[in-house]
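REQUEST ID: PR-0412
SUBMITTED BY: lab tech R.K.
PRIORITY: routine
TASK: structure prediction, single protein chain
INPUT:
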Amino acid sequence: MIGAYDEKINVDLKIKDKYYKVINFNDSNIDSYVPTIKMWMMNALELRDKREKLVFVINEQINDEKVNMFIKMLSKYADVVKLSEFNSYFK
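STATUS: complete
OUTPUT:
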C-alpha cells in the first residue's frame, strides 16, 4: 500500500476491500507506543482520503488504561477490533 507521499504503508492483511493492521500491546512496549499510534492515526487519515478502508486489529495482551486510550485514539480514524473478536467481525 502506498501513502499520499509515495511512502510504503505496511499493513498486515487485505481481505476483500479492507486493509488490516495488527497492533500488539504487551508490557514491554506499552510505554513507547504513543509515536506508533500517532503514525497509524495519520496513515488511517491518508488512506481515508484515498477512499481505502483500514481496520486496526488490537492484540490486547494486557488490559491497561493506556491500551484503552490507544483504542480510543485509533477509533477516531478507523474501525478497531480486538483480536479476540476478529472472527465475529465478519458475521
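NOTES: The longest strand covers residues 18-25.
REVIEWED BY: pending
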